[in-house]
Design goal:
Helix content is 0%, strand content 45%. The chain is mainly β and 123 residues long. A hairpin with a 6-residue loop joins β5 and β6.
Length: 123
């Protein structure tokens, strides 16, 4: 059974940085595309970024392109999201999930995502 556990969320000031981590188990992480999605209070789910299994091709939402970097360490079964230049509108619960892109405004099924980690950007 797949399990994804996110960490690294925190309260940070505008312009600050955070690195989120997601440890995977229960499936073959090294051959699985992965992604980050987020959900702000009272809003639908927004896809943030996706990466292929080898880690050499990443795609980003326009809202985060140039500020966020997705990466992975297949030896550690871990997915990362480096976030720089954070803005108040980046405040959300961030989820890692199986897959590379997501177009729905609802969360992926629980069996394919983690429990989420809260990122709050505020002065």
């Amino acid at each position: 059974q797949a399990e994804l556990v996110e960490s690294g969320g925190d309260l940070v000031q505008p312009g600050g940085s955070l690195r989120l981590s997601c440890v995977a188990s229960g499936f073959t992480f090294s051959i699985t595309g992965m992604m980050w999605v987020r959900q702000a209070p009272g809003k639908g789910v927004e896809w943030v970024s996706g990466i292929n299994s080898d880690g050499d091709h990443a795609v980003y939402a326009a809202s985060v392109h140039g500020r966020f970097t997705i990466s992975r360490d297949n030896a550690k079964n871990t997915l990362y999201l480096e976030m720089n230049g954070l803005k108040t509108e980046d405040t959300a619960v961030y989820y890692c999930a199986v897959g590379r892109q997501w177009i729905r405004d609802t969360l992926p099924d629980r069996q394919y995502r983690g429990q989420g980690t809260q990122v709050t950007v505020s002065s």
